[in-house]
Amino acid sequence: MVTAACYGARPIIDMLSIRPILTFSLLVHTLTGHPPVDTMPAPPGRTPTIPAATPARDTIPRPVGYINDFEHLFTPLQIEFLDSLIHEYERRTTIEIAVLTVDTSLTLPANFDFFTLQTMKAWGVGKKSSNNGILIGISRSFRKIRIQDGGGIEKQLPGADVKKIIDEAFIPFFRKGQYYEGLVSGLRTLMQRLE
Questions:
Q1: Residues 81/66, Cβ–Cβ less than 8 Å
Q2: Domain shared by 97 and 126, yes or no
Q3: Is there a single domain that holds both residue 116 and residue 22?
Q4: Sign of CA dihedral 17, 23, 26, 27
Q5: Mind listing the pLDDT tens digit for each residue in 27-79?
Q6: Would you say residue 152 lies in a domain?
Q7: Domain range for residue 109?
């Protein structure tokens, strides 16, 4: 079951944020007389190459705990609290919850849903015998949240209920830029609903 939501309008690209890229492209073109590498067609019979500086997209990162904050949304103290909250919940219920924050270097907006599902599978979130894992994927950059859950969770918490939790417990805080508060609210609501 995939439950997803966007929590706001897409931001308009700020021209100042892409100025270094445009300047570099112009410099390459001026010095070499050729357009930048990624705009040049590949020679016949050869596939185009990706410049070495391009980050690998859709590569599943290694988990670092219950809270995998690759977008740097939380302070170390907040991560410690969230980690202990999830750890204690797993000890009581055996339900495994992982949180993944996704920055733009990990995947593209169109792949966000698939990326969170593949991450959940790769990390093995949930007990294999009961399929009781939950992965909460959050991206401030993409303005998206996904909750991926195993089949054992779907029986207790249908997709409509998960969507309601996202809409009522997570998104109101996220819209204000309060990602920690939104995650705590959403986690507590999910945990109460599953106990």
A1: no
A2: yes
A3: no
A4: negative
A5: 444 444 544 444 444 445 554 444 433 446 778 999 999 999 999 999 999 99
A6: yes
A7: 63-194
